[in-house]
Amino acid sequence: MGTATAGKSRGATAWRNWAGNVTATPARVVTPASVGELQKVVRRAAEQGLRVKAVGTGHSFTAAAATDGVLVRPQALAGIKRIDRAAGTVTVAAGTVLKDLNRALAAEGLSLTNMGDIMEQTVSGATSTGTHGTGRDSASIAAQIRGLELVTADGRLLTCSREENPEVFAAARLGIGALGVLTAITLAVEPLFFLTAREEPMGFERVTSEFDEHVAENEHFEFYWFPHTGNCNTKRNNRSQGPAAPPGPVSAWIEDELLSNGVFQAVNSIGRGVPAAIPSIARVASRALSARTYTDIPYKVFTSPRRVRFVEMEYALPRGQLVAALRELRAVVDRSDLRISFPVEVRTAPADDITLSTASGRETAYIAVHMYRGTPYQAYFTAAERVFTAHGGRPHWGKVHTRDAEYFARVYPRFGEFTALRDRLDPERVFGNDYLRRVLGA
User: In this predicted structure, what is the pLDDT of residue 4?
Assistant: First the structure.
């Protein structure tokens, strides 16, 4: 491959995402060992008329990273580069996996303020697609970015922050891979703290009627509704003085196995083979939950393992529209022949100032719907999407949706700002692909 593709590289091989619903066959796969090597990869691909996409661990359910050109794996660009305790920041190479970052920060007595519910993604993949948790005051991982480095279509390395290249910084914190390849990200961190989690079953009518109160009273509130039932499970995470008091073995088994992994895998397999059994299974599973409280450091409370593979759609709605939309979704499921084995997840986020963030400029609530991998999901997702779009919803950039640039131009006031920046940074669409053509326009 010559010096232009220094580092590990190989010829065409199929790539598949985590859920297995997206595949691609790039012309070559490259794992650059340095930023300089990555810059050469981008320049050479541009000269050859090949498109370039970086891919993390494949946890996106869209084809945002798919390419028939050069697939860049950033895993060799990993690790903490710098901790600035005075500024309250950590700078990490873009290929760093979140679980490695969380553990390394904890060892340094530090933590992110908020995070999503899994930590298998790379930092660059998670921020580029808008990965988020739930929070009254603290927002997505991308909203915690204080600086970034980006290799652009001409091979330049741009350093961006609120002070340096601020217009690029505003967009590239959540860039869907359209503006360049991230090489380093600086995130805000704070001294390690404890969270006390309180999980409690609650009826659908109660949790929806009291939704605003729960959000106002808790730093982090979320709940899961079990379709075909009136049952929900709520989770409140709030800071506490500690000490650590992790879940006991029985409650840990219920959460990590019954709801999330081994037993849940078996239940979904039964449901896939015998869909008529799903409502009964849902009623039993939702009634198996009991209240529990535990305390630990943030990543051990926010995140949990997810071994059962699924396909997901998630929409961000104006927070005031959440309850109406969720009730409509329940009515759709109840009057249909749909059989849904996965709970519906509801979370929140404060407004942020990132150009294409799903929470850009508005208080937001998220509704996520899932289907077990290998189960036909189109009918359910189509029905759900019809509800979400009627409420001005914005789809998560890394999850299944059917929206296009015309729709996004309506729901994102700053959409034109992003596409104009893309025209300036990548006029030849070196970082383009079919997904970006659909969601951003030609």
Answer: 34
Residues 6+ apart with CB under 8 A from 215: 136, 221, 319, 348
Which pLDDT score, from 0 to 100, does residue 186 have?
98
Q: Determine the Cα–Cα distance for residues 380 and 303; give it in Å rounded to an integer.
A: 27
Q: Is the peptide bond before 227 cis (omega within 30 degrees of 0)?
A: no
Q: Which of 346, 342, 332, 337 is nearest to 373 (CA)?
A: 342
Tokens (6 digits) for 343: 């709970």
CA distance 323 to 327: 6
Is residue 135 pLDDT above 50, yes or no?
A: yes
CB of 331 closer than 8 Å to CB of 324: no
User: What pLDDT does residue 290 have?
Assistant: 77
For tokens 């065409």, the residue is 12
One-letter amino acid for residue 78 of the chain: A
Task: Tell me the torsion sign for CA atoms 241, 348, 353, 38.
Answer: positive
State how far the alpha carbon of 99 is from the alpha carbons of 103, 117, 298, in Å. Answer: 6, 11, 12
β-strand 15-16 against 23-24: which pairing, if any?
Answer: antiparallel
Q: Which amino acid is at 249?
A: P
Burial of 384 from C-beta contacts in 10 A (0-12 / 13-18 / 19+): buried
Mean pLDDT, rounded, for 41-48: 98
pLDDT at 260 over 70: no
